[in-house]
Amino acid sequence: MKLLTSPAPHVRTTDSTASVMIDVLIALSPAVVAATYFFGLQAFILSIVGMISAELLEFFIMRFLRKDKGFVPNGSAAVTGLLLALNVSVATPWWVLLIGVLFAIAVVKHAFGGLGQNIFNPALAARVFLLVSFPTAMTTWYPPLGKFFGTYVDIQTTATPLAVLKLEGFSSAMKKFTYIDLLFGNIGGCIGETSALLLIIGFLYLVFRGRIKLVIPITYLGTVFVFSSIMYMVNPERFGTPLFHLLAGGMMLGALFMATDMVTTPMTPKGQAIFGVGCGLITMLIRYFGGYPEGVSLSILLMNAFVPVIDRYTQPTIFGRRKS
User: N or C: the chain end with fewer CB closer than 10 Å?
Assistant: First the structure.
């Protein structure tokens, strides 16, 4: 029997970048609805501003700076803009969000070559950039309104569950917030990270559509659960329960939607497991011993930097060859 070989690719699909990005936007839509309900119309406006400005900026860069006259928007910029918007406080002015979008698209994404070439997750890098540049706007938290068209008419701020845990202890945090509040999102925080339940529902949609591999979320959340369980046995009042850490802060948004970015994560299953474990460990070290109560964004960005090394040392053996 004569065998014929042809050049790669050998596995083809009818999926396109646009179809994948549309699925991601659909998966994030429950979080946008929750953000609008809990924080009012301003949260919805920030989400729309993030998506539209990111798409317009990328169109300008591709058509006029990179001279790609055939460029057609594929939705990747909209996903970046929406994720960034979901990672800011409702107190963040729209023009600050625009600065973040400019940093994410122009610096983090296109300065490295555009889609598929960026080293760091653009939305997370922009969030950290805004956190350093505009700390007051990025760390001013309002309590949930619980109505779609509400507005904040006075200067009433609140603390996030992780901040209360760090400053006052676990018992104080549980007096102010219940697990039901953490699950449904009836808490202060970034507009898109509050409702863990709706983020999980959106994630399950992506799993059903085959858009996300489960290795990173499982190892990330599993590492957080194991590490926080050990620390809880050491000092319950200081460190809090594993369920608290899984539901509070940006854990679900980061583990399910940010750490699973196809471009900035390892290619191999073994590498993805290493990536997830690293994210989980760094997140909890920052939460427990760092000066900032949240560590999701920084942990994912730090592990993004190690992706080339992880990919290099987790390459599988080529079929027909022996391990060196």
Answer: N
The share of the chain scoring above pLDDT 90, in percent, equals 76
Alpha helices (H) along 61-116? 76-86, 94-102
Q: Which residues contact 55 (CB under 8 A, 6 or more apart)?
A: 73, 75, 77, 78, 81
- pTM for the whole structure: 0.92
Nearest to 44 by CA among 150, 142, 122: 150
Q: Among 233, 248, 238, 257, which Cα is nearest to 294's?
A: 248
Spatial CA neighbour of 115 closest among 228, 240, 20, 206: 20
| Residue with tokens 């001013």, as numbered in its chain | 140
pLDDT digits (tens, 9 = 90+) for 122-139: 999 999 999 999 999 999
**SS3 category, 36:** helix
Other CB atoms within a 10 A radius of the CB of residue 3 amount to 4
How far is 104 from 125, CA to CA, in rounded Å?
A: 7
Are 144 and 185 spatial neighbours (Cβ–Cβ below 8 Å)? yes
DSSP string, 264-313: SS-SSHHHHHHHHHHHHHHHHHHHHHSSSS--HHHHHHHHHHTHHHHHHH
Residues contacting 253, CB < 8 A, separation 6+: 31, 86, 87, 190, 192, 193, 199, 296
Question: What is the largest distance, in Å, between two alpha-carbon atoms of the chain?
Answer: 80
Which residue has tokens 């929750």? 34
- Stated length of the chain: 324
Q: Cα 195 from chain centroid?
A: 14
> In degrees, to the nearest 5, what angle opens at C-alpha 307 toward C-alphas 305 and 308?
100
* Token reading at 22: 């549309």
